[in-house]
């Protein structure tokens, strides 16, 4: 299955099935109130094509603090990835998945994908800039430049939302590891507007 992001903001977008033009996921990130720590708190809400919530990510600054997938409270990146077995080699990050020892999350400066080690095939891949991926006659809303190739796990050990979230988190790790531009959530004007709505209003006479 090939999904297209309808926005260049990967955490504030819809993903549509390229073959049908129908939405499969919706991601929306908003500023949320919380204790003042100098860092902005946000929540990314992930819904399926029918509108049901299938995941959330709680952020403190640009660090994911708590990830929930379907009915499971996963935790942070340490829990989503087997972080004690991360292999950092000069031009690659390799992380075993938590659901199948033969599946490996892999990141390089140019690529993000889920590798089936046994068959040496890519079961999922995130293309962050792929203007050449055009495979449909169906109308696709938006002008996103990112695509997600997604193959369900043959034994159903990982829901599609886990593969999506894991690849997005891997992109966050990749940016820091290889000196790529860090992810920016929203322009300051949007954040200021959001915070102003959270401030208590003064009583006026």
Automatic annotation (TrEMBL):
This is Uncharacterized protein. The lineage of its organism: Eukaryota, Fungi, Dikarya, Basidiomycota, Agaricomycotina.
């Amino acid at each position: 299955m090939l999904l297209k992001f309808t926005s260049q903001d990967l955490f504030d977008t819809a993903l549509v099935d390229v073959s049908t033009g129908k939405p499969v996921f919706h991601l929306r990130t908003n500023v949320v109130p919380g204790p003042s720590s100098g860092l902005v708190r946000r929540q990314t809400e992930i819904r399926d094509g029918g509108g049901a919530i299938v995941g959330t990510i709680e952020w403190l600054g640009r660090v994911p603090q708590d990830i929930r997938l379907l009915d499971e409270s996963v935790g942070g990146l340490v829990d989503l990835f087997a972080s004690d077995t991360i292999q950092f080699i000069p031009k690659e990050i390799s992380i075993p998945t938590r659901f199948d020892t033969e599946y490996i999350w892999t990141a390089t400066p140019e690529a993000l994908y889920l590798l089936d080690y046994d068959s040496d095939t890519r079961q999922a891949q995130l293309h962050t800039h792929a203007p050449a991926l055009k495979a449909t006659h169906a109308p696709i809303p938006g002008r996103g430049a990112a695509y997600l190739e997604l193959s369900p796990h043959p034994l159903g050990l990982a829901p599609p939302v886990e593969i999506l979230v894991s690849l997005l988190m891997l992109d966050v790790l990749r940016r820091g590891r290889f000196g790529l531009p860090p992810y920016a959530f929203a322009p300051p004007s949007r954040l200021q507007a959001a915070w102003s709505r959270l401030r208590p209003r003064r009583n006026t006479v």
